[in-house]
Amino acid sequence: MVVAPGLAGAVDFRGASRLWLGPGYDTNARRDFVTSNAAPQPDGFLFALGTVDGVIEGERFRVSGTYDGAARKFFLLPSEDTIVNSVSGDALYALSSTVSLGLTGVVRDRRGAERDYTSLVGQGVVDFSPTSAVDVRLRVGATRFLFWPRFAYSFSGPTVDATARYRFDRRHALSLTSSFTARTYNATVNSRPDEPEPSAARRFDPVFVVGAGYAYRGPFHLSVAYSYLDMTSNSYGETLRRHRLSATAGLRLPAQVTLLATGALQLSQFPDGIFLSPELQVVEDDENSSSLTVKLVRPVHAHVDVDVRYALYVNVLPQRALGTEPLVYVRHVVSIGATLSF
C-alpha cells in the first residue's frame, strides 16, 4: 500500500499488544503419520501467544513492526514442547502519491519437537497505487532457511513476490498473487533407483506459486482463495505439485459472540513418488494440510476476550510402493483461552 502524504512535519505512532493464554488437548501431539499398525499419541498442553506491533507514520514515510512469541508445554510428552519467535518489519517512503519504495524482512525461529529451524527473508519493495481502487506490490530479495536437526535440508536463494488487488467498492475486492523462489540446498540430490552411481550434484528446487482470491467485507466477512504450487526438483522424490482452495468467514452471533472459521482443501501430487524427507513435517499444519478451524470469541471486559477453538488437520500421502498402504495424518486440537489486549 502506497504511503499517503500527511500533514507537513506530523509524525503519528500507534501500537498494540495482545496476550493469549489457555489449556488445550491434541490428539496427535507428535504430528505422526499413521498406518493401520500405528496410532498417534494424544496429550494435553498449555499454550501462550504474545504479540506486540507498532506503526510510525510521517509525511512521506511509514515504518511498522511486529513481534510474535509463542510457547506450548505438553504434560506427558515434553519432547514436543515448542517455542517460536517471529519478528517482521516494513519501511516505506513515498516518492509520490502513487509510488513508494521500501524494505521488508521476516525472521522466524522455532525450537522443539525435533523441528528446530530458522527462516530469514529480506526484500526490497515497490508499491504502486494509481487509483484508490488499485494496489500493486512487487518484492525482490533473498531467503535463507536453516533446518538444524538435518542441516543438509537447509537452503537459500533469491525470491520474488508480486501481488495486485482491485477493490470494486468498499465491500468487494479481488486479488492476484504470484511468487518464485530458487532454492539451492546444502544437500546433494537423491539419485534415481535406475542410476548406477549416486550423483554429487546439489539439490535445486525452483518453486512457483500463483493464486487468486476474492474478499467481501459487509455485515459478515468472507474470503475465498485458490493457489497452485509447483516445485520441480532435480532430486528424486522431492518434486511436488499442490492445489489449495481455502475460505475464511467471520460472523457476529447473538450475545456478543463472534464466529470465525477457516477451511482449506489441499490436493498434493508427487510425480516421482514420495521420498519422506524432513521437509514434509517442517511446515506448520495450517500450511501443509487440509484443515478446518473454528473459533468462538466473546468479550468479557474492555480488554479481555474469551474463546473456544477447534482445529482439524488432515493429510494423506499416496502409496510409497506397490502393495503398501497410504500414510494418513490426522490431528484434532481443542483449546480454551483468554486474550488480553492493551
Which descriptor suits the 3D outline? globular
- Total count of strands: 16
Q: Helical proportion?
A: under 10%
Main sheet record: 16 strands, antiparallel, barrel
> Which structural class matches the secondary elements?
mainly beta
Low-confidence stretches: none
Percent of sequence in beta strands: over 45%
What is the number of helical segments per DSSP (H or I, 4+ residues)?
2
The mean pLDDT is 89
Element-level helix/strand string: EEEEEEEEEEEEEHHEEE
Report how far the terminal alpha carbons are from each other.
26 Å
Structural Rg: 22 Å
Strand order of the largest sheet: 1-2-3-4-5-6-7-8-9-10-11-12-13-14-15-16
Describe it.
The protein has 342 residues and is mainly β. 2% of the residues lie in helices and 65% in strands. Strands 1-2-3-4-5-6-7-8-9-10-11-12-13-14-15-16 form a 16-stranded antiparallel β-barrel. Strand 12 (240-253) and strand 13 form a beta hairpin. The longest helix is centred in the last third of the chain and has 4 residues, at 279-282.
